[in-house]
Design a protein that fits this description.
Layout (H helix, E strand, L loop, with lengths): L2 E6 L3 H17 L4 E6 L3 H4 L16 H9 L4 E5 L11 E5 L8 E5 L13 E3 L3 H10 L4 E3 L5 H9 L5 E5 H6 L8 E2 L14 E6 L3 H8 L4 H20 L4 E8 L2 E10 L2 E9 L4 H13 L6
Parallel strand pairs: 1-2, 1-3, 6-7, 6-8
Antiparallel strand pairs: 3-10, 4-10, 5-8, 5-9, 11-12, 12-13
């Protein structure tokens, strides 16, 4: 019997995502046994700091990567959007399973849509990306930070601390809570975080046996889209630190990526299209376009 140890965070969502991956792997490799190693990360311990101060810097991933490098586990399951754009030496993303819905969802008291929220409603989010885009479509609302796992945030909403909160729709779906979504924001209203809804299966680069096991659940279309989005993010980080969003997908044989960023000069949004094999280049091209301040709409 083949055995592989997977490390994950202890939250309900992280455990659900890990079980999803384990099921995919067992289906692809009958007889495979997957053992779970739960690890606490900096993001789990710090429930005070704004998420924006830790996004993309390894808050929720570095402890798992350290466990891989120590040999405490064979692979890790990450929410891909939490991974820094720079890959640690000795590790590789061996698979990106089929992506879940990348859109954001509004969960509101009274189960109302974004347009129907009361004037100056209190909306909970600690994401600068979400806040910047909310201010475009509903400039009247008051944004209030919120931390904690999905259950904690929903409890704060239900207690009346907020009129609405914004969460990743993928997380709600994976927890069996899709019905809590009052309104799923369209891509025109809010672009997602780069790689939102995608999972990254990371392992040690020299471990060819584990890489081969994980490769069986890789989805090339999802990997290509995420590659473009993360190249976009990496290029923006090289130039400045701004709230940013991106969504890439295959359309009619070509790859299109829409991007958003907000700065002191205001929000800008644009898109580019090209060959799927040029995914990373397209992401960098879009970042340069937005940094030049030449929005297409």
């Amino acid at each position: 019997m083949t055995v592989r140890r997977v490390c994950t965070r202890g939250s309900k969502l992280a455990r659900a995502q890990t079980e999803l991956v384990a099921g995919l792997l067992r289906a692809a490799h009958p007889g495979l046994e997957v053992e779970t190693v739960v690890i606490s990360t900096a993001g789990d311990k710090d429930q005070v700091s704004s998420l924006s101060s830790g996004e993309g810097v390894g808050w929720f991933t570095s402890a798992l990567q350290e466990a891989l490098l120590r040999g405490d586990a064979d692979f890790a399951v990450h929410s891909y959007k939490d991974l820094p754009t720079k890959q640690p030496e000795g590790l590789v993303v061996a698979a990106v399973p089929a992506r879940e819905d990348p859109r954001d969802a509004l969960v509101s008291r009274g189960d109302v849509a974004l347009a129907d929220l009361r004037e100056r409603a209190v909306v909970g989010t600690s994401s600068a990306r979400r806040e910047a885009q909310l201010r475009v479509v509903r400039p009247d609302v008051h944004i209030r930070p919120i931390r904690g796992n999905v259950d904690t945030r929903l409890a704060k909403l239900d207690a009346g601390d907020y009129d609405a909160i914004v969460l990743a729709f993928a997380g709600l779906k994976r927890l069996g809570l899709a019905g809590r979504a009052s309104y799923v924001l369209s891509f025109d209203e809010m672009l997602p975080a780069p790689a939102q809804g995608a999972l990254a299966l990371e392992c040690r680069a020299p471990d060819s046996a584990t890489r081969a096991l994980l490769a069986a659940v890789d989805d090339p279309e999802s990997r290509t889209a995420v590659e473009a989005e993360r190249a976009f993010l990496a290029a923006l980080e090289a130039g400045c630190s701004v709230p940013a969003a991106a969504w890439a997908r295959l359309e009619g044989g070509s790859l299109r990526i829409d991007g958003f960023m907000a700065s002191d000069a205001g929000p800008v949004r644009d898109s580019v299209s090209g060959e799927a094999r040029d995914a990373a280049s397209l992401g960098r091209t879009l970042a340069a376009l937005l940094l030049d301040g030449s929005p297409g709409r």
